[in-house]
Amino acid sequence: MNKTILVVLDACRPDALIQAHTPYLDSLWLTGAYTWTAQATVPSYTLPCHMSMFRGVPAAKHGVTGNTYSPSAQAYPSILEVAHAAGKHVAVFHSWEELRDLAAPGNVDLSYYRAYREDEDTDAIVARIAADYVIARQPDLTFLYLARPDYIGHLAGWMSPAYLAAIEQSDRDLGVLLERLTIAGIRDRFTLLILSDHGGHGHDHGSDLPEDLLIPWILNGPSIRRGYALTTPVRIYDTAATLAALLDLPVPPEWDGAPVREAWASPTEDTRP
Ligand SMILES: [Zn+2]
Fold first, then answer.
1. pLDDT at 270
2. Distance, CA 80 to ligand 1 centroid (Å)?
3. Would residue 43 count as lying in a domain?
């Protein structure tokens, strides 16, 4: 079984990830399986997209169509709930309060929330706390949410220099976790899934334009193909099913998403560095 770490860079466009200087993210896709044309859900807002990511269905099904939670989403189990019910250790680290509804209360072993603030480096603090916990407890499923690219996108505009710099800072925040795993000698116990919830254009997102809908989707781990560009169309709601498969858990029948098995290395393929 793989231990899994899901990392969301809020509102990171694939073309921005390619333009920005992101050595940690680059190392993950260069030695992992990836696509730059994964699809978010419509409307491309943060909560609908996260609900699809965790609950395995498009927004048209789960019914969360804005940044306000709707109990209709409970008809579709969250990967956090599925993993917890199977006895997996689940940990969540975030800075946006609405993400509390990614799972019903009592389904997460540790939930760390620190409200995002302009006058501090909230993402760096959250990422450091996540790294400390992952090293100490080695959860089966960890979710780390990085808010800055979305915040700066709204402020300075998508693809602006400040927005690209925000993605570079997210790369360094993720790098802290990767370096800590490597130093602890446990990096190869974890499979990472990195994506964004949606893109953006101008100073906003939410539309069905490709700039808003296309997202990067990167899988990197010991059983994953290396430097492999996926050809399967990947939907944001395939994320939950892919995590379930990595955790050796059955995919709930309620989900429309499927594991992106094209990313799996064949048993004979040498995936060592
Ligand atoms: Zn977002």
1. 57
2. 19
3. yes
85 C-alpha vs ligand 1 centroid, how far in Å?
27
Distance 236 CA to ligand 1 centre (A): 13
Residues with CB under 5 A from ligand 1 (ion): 10-11, 46, 150, 197
Q: Would residue 83 count as lying in a domain?
A: yes
Q: How far is the CA of 176 from the centre of ligand 1 (A)?
A: 22
Query: pLDDT by residue (tens digit) across 114-161?
Result: 999 989 999 999 999 999 999 999 999 999 999 999 999 999 999 999
Residue 213 in domain: yes
Domain count, the chain: 1
Give the distance between the most distant pair of CA atoms in the chain. 51
Distance 270 CA to ligand 1 centre (A): 36
In the reported structure, the alpha carbon of residue 44 is separated from the centroid of ligand 1 by a whole-number distance in angstroms of: 8
Q: What is the dihedral of CA 219, 221, 226, 229, to 10 degrees?
A: -10
107 lies in which domain range?
Answer: 3-263
* Ligand 1 center–CA 30 separation, angstroms: 25
Q: Domain of 88: which CATH number?
A: 3.40.720.10
Quote the ligand 1 centre to 254 CA distance (angstroms).
24
Residue 266 is predicted with a pLDDT of 83
Distance from residue 101's CA to the centre of ligand 1 (Å): 15
Those residues of the chain that have pLDDT short of 50 are none
**What is the spatial order of strands in the sheet that 214-220 belongs to?**
110-113, 90-94, 141-146, 3-9, 190-195, 214-220, 33-39, 228-229
**C-alpha–C-alpha distance, residues 21 and 166, integer Å:** 11
pLDDT for residue 38: 98
- Residue 212 phi, psi dihedral angles, 5° rounding: -90, -30
